[in-house]
TrEMBL record:
<dbReference type="Pfam" id="PF01012">
    <property type="entry name" value="ETF"/>
</dbReference>
<dbReference type="GO" id="GO:0046395">
    <property type="term" value="P:carboxylic acid catabolic process"/>
</dbReference>
<comment type="subunit">
    <text>Heterodimer of an alpha and a beta subunit.</text>
</comment>
<dbReference type="GO" id="GO:0009055">
    <property type="term" value="F:electron transfer activity"/>
</dbReference>
<dbReference type="InterPro" id="IPR014729">
    <property type="entry name" value="Rossmann-like_a/b/a_fold"/>
</dbReference>
<dbReference type="InterPro" id="IPR012255">
    <property type="entry name" value="ETF_b"/>
</dbReference>
<protein>
    <recommendedName>
        <fullName>Electron transfer flavoprotein subunit beta</fullName>
    </recommendedName>
</protein>
<dbReference type="InterPro" id="IPR033948">
    <property type="entry name" value="ETF_beta_N"/>
</dbReference>
<comment type="similarity">
    <text>Belongs to the ETF beta-subunit/FixA family.</text>
</comment>
<keyword id="KW-0813">Transport</keyword>
<dbReference type="InterPro" id="IPR000049">
    <property type="entry name" value="ET-Flavoprotein_bsu_CS"/>
</dbReference>
<dbReference type="InterPro" id="IPR014730">
    <property type="entry name" value="ETF_a/b_N"/>
</dbReference>
<feature type="domain" description="Electron transfer flavoprotein alpha/beta-subunit N-terminal">
    <location>
        <begin position="19"/>
        <end position="207"/>
    </location>
</feature>
<comment type="function">
    <text>The electron transfer flavoprotein serves as a specific electron acceptor for other dehydrogenases. It transfers the electrons to the main respiratory chain via ETF-ubiquinone oxidoreductase (ETF dehydrogenase).</text>
</comment>
<keyword id="KW-0249">Electron transport</keyword>
Length: 245
């Protein structure tokens, strides 16, 4: 169950003055919202007796431990931090997760469909390809029975239901569930739950970047609106703007 540390979704990101990226200094960080949903779904599966152990994994800086402790406080049993200061791209993340899957042999990997910082929406699909496991992406309903998982997926035309043979990879969409808040007693218990520290080298994965960000810029500011007296003036304005013929 991978989880990522990202800028809190309530915070408006600020671009660095030199345009090289997003300013993370003194910014509140939290668990990626889609990953919160995957943690909640894993906990619900365990509560139903479908899952026996929940392992949370995060790849990133040392402070990602805080994100893992949140997952542990919600109900995960143990955690693995693959610590690196590199900006790890989706393919490298998928390769690290593949190595962990080979080691842990989970029956089900549940992860958020995308992270809200880069919106790549690639890791789950790449992990499924690398492991050769079936995938159910954009899940808004998940049922596990026996050796199969039934996933209702959100697609452009509505909903699609697929049945996957386990083990499988699932990525979560927003409407799958409503994540719970971690209680204070569970937050205290999470401090004593196992958290293993690893590095990408432990899994034989090179995290060197293959993509270069050339520039990051703020979206253009909206121009002020214009009041018109009547429909004729509105039509004239639209024609002048080239919107109407």
């Amino acid at each position: 169950m991978p989880v990522k540390r990202v800028i809190d979704y309530n915070v408006k990101p600020r671009v660095k003055m030199d345009g090289t990226g997003v300013d993370l200094a003194n910014v509140k960080m939290s668990m990626n919202p889609f990953d919160e949903i995957s943690v909640e779904e894993a906990i619900r599966l365990k509560e139903k007796g479908v899952a026996t152990e929940i392992v949370a994994v995060s790849i990133g800086v040392a402070k990602a431990q805080e994100t893992l402790r949140t997952a542990l406080a919600m109900g995960a049993d143990r955690a693995i931090l693959v610590q690196t200061d590199d900006e790890v791209e989706p393919l490298a993340v998928a390769k690290i997760l593949k190595a962990i899957v080979d080691e842990e042999q989970p029956g089900l990997v549940i992860l958020g469909k995308q992270a809200i910082d880069d919106d790549s929406n690639q890791t789950g699909q790449m992990l499924a390809a690398l492991t050769g496991r079936p995938q159910g992406t954009f899940a808004n309903k998940l049922e596990v029975a026996g050796d199969a998982a039934t996933v209702t997926r959100e697609v452009d035309g509505g909903l699609e239901t697929v049945k996957l043979a386990l083990p499988a990879i699932i990525t979560t969409d927003l409407r799958l569930n409503e994540p719970r808040y971690a209680s204070l007693p569970n937050i205290m218990k999470a401090k004593s739950k196992p958290l293993a520290n690893k590095t990408p080298a432990d899994y034989g994965v090179d995290t060197a970047t293959r993509l270069q960000t050339l520039k990051v810029s703020e979206p253009p500011k909206r121009s002020a609106g214009i009041k018109v007296a009547d429909v004729d003036e509105l039509v004239a304005k639209l024609k002048n703007m080239g919107v109407a013929a």
